[in-house]
């Protein structure tokens, strides 16, 4: 695997972030973006052996916007 993508969602009600890897069973959460980045790096390192570890990890931020009419 050369690249791994995490879908990142911000919890607007309680604050913090969750990140779920697409195509791999990895999930993590954090209160800040810096903490989330560190948690993603740690989770990827724990999930993959050195030879299998992806070279690139992308964080894809998902944002919902609600409009009232």
Largest sheet: 4 strands, mixed
The computed structural class is: alpha+beta
Q: Please list the strands of the largest sheet in the order they lie side by side.
A: 3-2-1-4
Give the second-level CATH assignment, the architecture.
2-Layer Sandwich
Using only C-alpha atoms, the radius of gyration works out to 13 Å
Task: State the share of residues found in helices, binned by percent.
Answer: 10-25%
What is this structure, in a nutshell?
By secondary structure, this protein is α+β, with helices and mostly antiparallel strands.
Give a quick set of tags describing it.
TTHA1013/TTHA0281-like; alpha+beta; 4 strands; four-stranded mixed β-sheet; about 70 residues
Word description of this protein:
The chain is α+β, with helices and mostly antiparallel strands and 69 residues long. It has a single domain, classed as TTHA1013/TTHA0281-like (2-Layer Sandwich), CATH 3.30.2390. Helices cover 22% and strands 35% of the residues. The protein has 1 helix and 4 strands; from the N terminus they run βββαβ. The chain has a 4-stranded mixed sheet with strand order 3-2-1-4, covered by helices on one side. A hairpin with a 6-residue loop joins strand 1 and strand 2 (17-21).
List the helices and strands and how they pair.
Layout: E1 3-10, E2 17-21, E3 27-30, H1 33-47, E4 56-62
Parallel strand pairs: 1-4
Antiparallel strand pairs: 1-2, 2-3
